[in-house]
Each structure stands twice: as structure tokens, then as C-alpha cells.
Amino acid sequence: xxxxxxxxxxxxxxxxxxxxxxxxxxxxxxxxxxxxxxxxxxxxxxxxxxxxxxxxxxxxxxxxxxxxxxxxxxxxxxxxxxxxxxxxxxxxxxxxxxxxxxxxxxxxxxxxxxxxxxxxxxxxxxxxxxxxxxxxxxxxxxxxxxxxxxxxxxxxxxxxxxxxxxxxxxxxxxxxxxxxxxxxxxxxxxxxxxxxxxxxxxxxxxxxxxxxxxxxxxxxxxxxxxxxxxxxxxxxxxxxxxxxxxxxxxxxxxxxxxxxxxxxxxxxxxxxxxxxxxxxxxxxxxxxxxxxxxxxxxxxxxxxxxxxxxxxxxxxxxxxxxxxxxxxxxxxxxxxxxxxxxxxxxxxxxxxxxxxxxxxxxxxxxxxxxxxxxxxxxxxxxxxxxxxxxxxxxxxxxxxxxxxxxxxxxxx
Length: 412
Prior knowledge:
Layout: H1 2-22, E1 25-26, E2 36-37, E3 52-57, E4 68-70, E5 73-80, E6 83-90, E7 95-103, E8 122-124, E9 127-131, E10 136-141, E11 147-152, E12 171-172, E13 176-179, E14 188-192, E15 198-202, E16 215-218, E17 223-228, E18 232-237, E19 243-248, E20 263-265, E21 268-272, E22 281-286, E23 293-299, E24 309-312, E25 315-319, E26 324-329, E27 335-340, E28 344-349, E29 352-357, E30 361-366, E31 373-379, E32 392-394, E33 397-402, E34 405-410
Parallel strand pairs: 2-28
Antiparallel strand pairs: 1-8, 3-34, 4-5, 5-6, 6-7, 8-9, 9-10, 10-11, 12-13, 13-14, 14-15, 16-17, 17-18, 18-19, 20-21, 21-22, 22-23, 24-25, 25-26, 26-27, 28-29, 29-30, 30-31, 32-33, 33-34
């Protein structure tokens, strides 16, 4: 009887562990959408030529969207001949399946210089959600790539694309998928994540789309959906789409300058934006019930269009428009450290920053006191067009996308 009891406990614990693991949603910039990855025991420096290249795949088509890793698969969006595709690869870089997702963004006038996929897929258990630059949201089966449902935000929800298309990476919770069609009436929307049926729509501020991937803040009283429109940071009640508060962003001087997903930590919201004088970097206090915000500080001199930022301990790290990686004190908003030669995307893991700069350099920066220390760097030689994608870390591997090329580097 004792042995049977032990066996039962073991089976229950294994099932609980598997269930807990299955609850994890793989998505844009990591589990909390904040660019902080929980990997440990990673390399503290790299050879001059960079870490070992495990594999290179140059078949993913054009685009800027990052990959996402879930279980033994990697998913990434790409554009081939103006068609959007969701690709599923094994962790060896070999194709498992690819599925079309309508037309991909090709642009006009100036925006035609930046065609291709611009979003990161979201994986939730056996389903993966992909959004094209033209606003087609599709739910696929992870195992097969078969389409479960699709919603076109322009056709079905009367949405309006931005000048550079749609760039949000889908956000899902237990029941819903949240999206930003950008129409006057259906400004924001929640869909049933299993069927695609509309649960609610919200006029919100009836402001146009920006290029931000939304964030969910789970509070005791309500869940707050936080995203950015053309000119505002705003919070909505996730249950019904009620607009709770908004924060005017005054550094929007041109399309595409307000793209970074906000970061929530210890009751405060942090944001970075802009290419001209304006809001720049800021800190807002969110009320305990999620219904209001209060500005704590702003630093208009630290601006970043779409490279993201990370918040670690009492510092905010951002690769700013003046080609400097900067550290801001969370209490004051003042720059307390900086290092030159970096403008691009920033993530963190294992007490290091990883900056994939727009000159193609991947930089490894140690977060030592009192100064950051650049310990290694190497150049991305493969791929096409701009170095805009955000890098990803999973299972001791650093993934970097450069246009039509996806590279996997061993960093453990």
C-alpha cells in the first residue's frame, strides 16, 4: 500500500508539473513581454568570431518579426512573393510545416522600403496565433499548421491599417485574444481565442493604430489591457473594453515612432518612445484598482523608436537614438551610466544585456557595478535589409533574425 501511495504521489506531481508547463504562453519578448529571459549559466564571453553557430536558415522570407520557441518547435512569420507565411521549424532549423496567412504588408511611397512580416507569433498549448502586416489574425494547430479560424481586422472589424501596416504580436489569456483594429468604432477588440468570435469591441479613444504589442496587467480587482495608439498610452478593462485611463504621448512627430511594449513592475508602468523632443522615457504609477495613473517622472532626452528596453532591479536600460546604451535610475529617471556605439534592440539574461545594434553588431554587456562592461561582440553577416528584429534566448540558444535569415547560436 505504501508503494502504491508513493507511485500515486509521483504520478500526480508529474501531471502537475506538465500541466504547469503547458500553461506557459510563448510570446513576444519572453514570458512577461519585458525582454527579460530566465536562462542561467550562459557564456560570460564569446570568441572573437562570436558564439558557435548551430544552424542558419535562409528560407523564412522577408520580415522583421522575431521567432518564438515553444517545446521542440520554433515559429516565425515571413513574407514570400507578398504572401504572409507562418513557419514551424524543429530546434535543428529544419522545416516542419509552413502555412499561408493572406497578403503581407508591402507598403507604398516611403513605407514600401520596409515590406515583410513584422510580428511575432504567440503559442498557447496546441494552438499558435499569427498576425499579418495587413491585419489577418489566424489560429493554427501547432502540430499540423492547419487553420482553425481567421479574422481580418480590416474586413471583419472595420479596422484601419497604419502607414507601416499592423505590427502587434497577438496577446492571449485564458479565454481571449486581444487586438487593435484601429477603427473609429471598433478601435480595440477581444476575440474568443478558440473560435475567433468577437467578445467585445471598444471605441477606446478612436485613435489610429501604433505599432505596439499590448501588455496585460493582472490585478486583484481587474485585469488591465495596456497598449499604445497613435498618440496615447491607454489602459482598458480586459473584461469589457472600458477605457480606464490614457496618457498623451507628445513625441509622435512621424509614423512609427511609438512602438515599444510598456513594462510593468511593482505597481509602476515604464515606457520609452520617440525620435524627436517629447515624452521620451517615463514612469507612471498605476493605482491599486487599475483605474488611474499618475506621472512620476519623464526624461525627454532618452528616446528609442522600437528597440525595446528592459527593467532590472533599480535600473532601466535602453539603447537610445543618440547611439548610446543608457541606464536610468528608476527612482529619478536620470541617466547613471552609458556606453557608446549601440542603437538597436535590447534584451537581458543571466546578469547580461544583449544588444543587437542596427549596424549588425551583437553586443554582450555585463551588468557590473558601477559601470556596464561590453565584454564581447560579433557581426551578423547573413541576411537582408535592416537589423531591426529583437533577439530571443531559449534553452541556451540565442536566436537572431536578419531579414530572410534566421541564426541559432550556442551560448551555454
